[in-house]
Design goal:
Blueprint lengths: L14 E6 L2 H4 L25 E6 L5 H17 L4 E4 L3 E4 L2 H5 L3 H13 L5 H8 L5 E5 L2 H16 L1 H22 L1
Parallel strand pairs: 3-5
Antiparallel strand pairs: 1-2, 1-3, 4-5
Length: 182
């Protein structure tokens, strides 16, 4: 569980990968569907292996997008017997057993829904918590590289005000020079 919450860095585009090893599904990638209200299939490709990979683009700061991701994961795990979910922002195996074994499912569902809406957990984490069956959830990040990138982003955000001030000064100088030259 701790691994899932190490660090979350805003990215331009990001993916959640579902690996489906069921031969029945893998035989025809063109039959994979997602609920219309949750998302849209934008492309398909049939490779040379038995595995099928479903990539979901993620909008990190959108509660609605996170809900849709949770709905898509729930749908493909029920409909296509997906058993593995690979997520960004974490590394290694991620254990959701505590939530799966908690006897009051209504409480788990309610609390995890609120946590997802507030951005405390992601849609993929929400799906793993509320899913009726245990999912094999793995973080795909190289932990050391991810933490280096996190530190770089943190540094940039810490320097944001200084950077904006410098940019403003440059804009002022350029504006003055424009008036002088033109």
């Amino acid at each position: 569980m701790k691994t899932a919450h190490y660090v979350k860095v805003v990215a331009l585009m990001t993916s959640i990968l579902f690996t489906c090893v069921q031969v029945g599904m893998a035989g025809n990638v063109y039959t994979v569907r997602v609920p219309e209200e949750a998302g849209t299939v934008v492309s398909r490709y049939k490779g040379d292996t038995k595995e099928t990979v479903i990539i979901v683009q993620d909008a990190h700061t959108s509660a609605e997008a996170q809900k849709n991701i949770s709905d898509i994961i729930s749908h493909v795990t029920r409909t296509y017997d997906v058993q593995q979910v690979n997520i960004e922002g974490a590394s290694g195996d991620i254990d959701f057993d505590f939530f799966q074994q908690y006897p009051h499912k209504d409480i788990v569902n309610s609390v995890s829904e609120k946590m997802m809406r507030k951005g405390i957990i992601t849609g993929s984490e929400h799906a793993a918590i509320v899913n009726e069956k245990k999912l094999d959830v793995k973080g795909v990040e190289n932990k050391e590289e991810y933490l280096k990138n996190y530190e770089a982003c943190k540094y940039i955000f810490e320097k944001k005000e200084d950077s904006l001030r410098i940019i403003k000064n440059f804009e002022d100088v350029i504006s003055q020079e424009k008036k002088r030259v033109f």
